[in-house]
Task: structure prediction
Amino acid sequence: MHAETEVLFRDSAAQALLDPQLRANFRRAMDGLMAKRKAQFPEPQDLQDLRDLSTAIRSRSLLALPELLEQFEANCIKNGIKVHWAETCEQANELVLGILNAKGAKTLVKGKSMVSEEMHLNAFLEKHGIEALESDLGEYIIQLDGETPSHIIMPAIHKNKDQIARQFSQKIKDAKYTEDVDELTAMARKVLRQKFLDADAGLSGVNFAVAETGTLCLVENEGNGRMSTHVPPLHIAVMGLEKVVARLEDVAPLYAILTRSATGQAVSTYFNLITAPRGAGEKDGPQEVHLIILDNGRSRIYADPQLRATLRCIRCGACMNHCPVYTRVGGHAYEAVYPGPIGKILTPQMEGVGVRHDLIHGSSLCGACAEVCPVEIPIPEILVRLRREATHEDAGSNVEGRGTGRTTTEDWAWRLWAGVLKRPGLYRVASWFATRFGKALPAGAPLIKNWTRTRTTPVPARRSLSERMRAEGGRHD
Amino acid sequence: MTNRPATDARTAILGRLRAAGETGPLPSLDTAVLERCHWGAAERMDRLRKGMEAVHTEFLTASPDDWTQVVRDFCDREGLKNLLYGPGSEAGADLAASWAPGGTQLMPYDRPVEAFKDELFTGVDAGFTSTVGGVAETGGLLLMPDAAEPRLMSLVPPVHIALLRASTIQDSFWSAVKALGWGRSLPPNALMISGPSKTADIEQTLAYGVHGPKRLIVVLVDDLN
Amino acid sequence: MNAPKPKKVYFYGTCLVDLFFPDAGMAGIQLLRQAGVEVVFPDGQTCCGQPAFNCGYWEEARDVARTQVALFPEDLPVILPSGSCAGMMKVHYPELFHGQSDEAKVSAFSARVYELTQFLVDVLDVKLQDLGEPVKVTWHSSCHAVRDLGLKGEPQSLIGQLTNVELAPLARTHECCGFGGTFSVRQPEISGAMSCDKAADAEATGASILLSTDGGCLLNVNGTLEAKRSPLRVQHIAEFLWERTHAR
Result:
């Protein structure tokens, strides 16, 4: 039964491939990020040791997840942080709205949060008359154009200086046209400074949540995260339930490998640890801090021992920086909140493997992603598993949409394939035909024509290796 | 305020996570790679400085006896109108005690921010804070804002002047967390700062001075002897 | 490795070599014989099963895989002229047969699998004598050879032994060529873009021949080069090494 509302990665990818500006931008950007990351890891053994340690920390956290979440929540509450739980994005949005309405908040300034993108929070709040303004420069740039992020770390990576210059001169009051990066940055600083000052509330994500202290850790370079979380009287943090680690010292190696893998920095400008709202005697900081813990399919992924590895992700973006597919099509082609290799395994598990069957097949399984993943998520292995889930309903699986990508055509194709290949006699006949009549392979036949769009048709040799070995007596019993 | 859905959500979520059951033994943690950074005090100071200068941090060297004068001289050179400081902190009190009249005005952060938020955002040239340590491996300052030196001092004014005593510099963030006992107890806000604020969001070109301070000045007090 | 060198090995052709690069298969066998090893080529070989495995059709993949494993009963190394197929048999067969009644038997087979250049260098430590004319080549490393099997420059070291061969590296040696098996026909646009880039990279090196361990990569890049009417040709590393080193 073919999924009715299948989203075809192939189509959006094909369109992106025709855009030379996009391709050049991403090629240049990804090359730069790959080189920067490489420069941070001169010693292969040190890198492997750090990856192994990071993987072990994340695996441990996941193994003890329910206990750690309870410990984390208890400590947050003790510190004065109000903790809320949301099973779905709808619930999370309603919670945010409720918290804002209780304070009569009409403006929300946002630090960067991919979970808030998952929630489509901005659009939701806008419908309810609350302005949600992005303050991370990349997010601010795309918000001006009404776009979504094309990369999880550098949201405006697809944009050129001249595009941004034009945008700023058009959308920012009294702004003149300039392509000077410092001037553009200064413009954004000026606009957003007023917003930080005026905002009723601030929203952030959470890079790491520490159970032993009830602390939210935020990694950033610009200072907008600190602005959003310290200046307004109300701070709301949103996080996926997989973000918690046991101890603060566990965060150190994860932080070290995160910044190096993401942008090739040894350290970010700021590493911010938020443990409580404004304390007794403190003169600044928010009076109220709320945390929303979001599920949105994560607990389902968690339940599968193999697929659980998906949740180790620390959102560094190294996988997409190294992906030959992502480099060529950019983030928007994925038509998903999370693009790139991590998006290829996360999105189908959240939305359904049938609906996203084409996306799961949008990979050559080259493994470049798994090679650089700081927490050793075996992305190609998981892709193969998800391809299985899309076309079969195995006992014990609870993957979203399992079996809905199955087609009778494909079933029969593989049955036929196996039928021939497990019978040497049949294969011998088939290969005889292939070698004798291979030139006659019709270039326009289905599937063949997909090959011949950019290549000549392969022509089998006149005699197969097996045939020659049989003739030359290479055979032994 | 009752959150009916949220309470149910919590039970449902934790229930699903528990139902998944634990699979496999807990992997062991081999932290040897973190212990490889280990230097003497003088080298820690050098590494911190190199790491931070690479991201446009400015350094002023001082001794335990003359750092207040070094700060004063900087303010004079830059023609700063004022310097926000915390009168309740030890360093703040020392600074105030030595501050000659005229020139840069010392501005005490001695009341809640609501009393002067606009002025803080538009009328303060620089903020002065202490630090509780530094990180040598990557470069970085460790701060624990409190009642005496509030959070926004190191964030809002365009210039942040930070006092760092060389003896407090740790090898790495990991060793610093352990040395400072942050795993046992943290204030409402603690942080590490490695330089002035920056971004590379426009064509991956580095630009400094985004939303946080445009300049970070570290007054490095050599108290190693 | 100081273990005594094996005297006898199995050779598994792989379906792409069988049908499209039989000379490479013969060359691989000859190279092993040249190194003093007896080569057994059981009849009845078809396919390692990777295409079905990668598409989630595991029963079909196992059906075919079982018939292949049964052809190699003796405890001898099994040599393949393909990083991709060797990776399938060595790394993915144990996954595919996890929980199956013949899991142990298949895993024992997997432990004996080698890619050809890996075997020539790491086990046989072959020494090659270049008998050919000067030529400039370039090397494309198959993703599975490097990432599944962990090849660390074995093919390049063999090329390096040939004194009249200049190796001009690709700008992106390790970037996928875009074949990916069924990927090449399921995602033709993306695959096409990757293949075009790989072909352009190869042409830019100024080499006369593009070498690789993998038939899939070679078919893919060759088809692209031919469509552009490029003078650059491709060749399987086994065929190239045999041509350069055997006295006629």
In short: The first helix of chain A runs from residue 9 to 17. Strands of chain A lie at 81-86, 107-110, 131-134, 201-204, 208-210, 215-220, 234-240, 244-245, 270-274, 288-294.
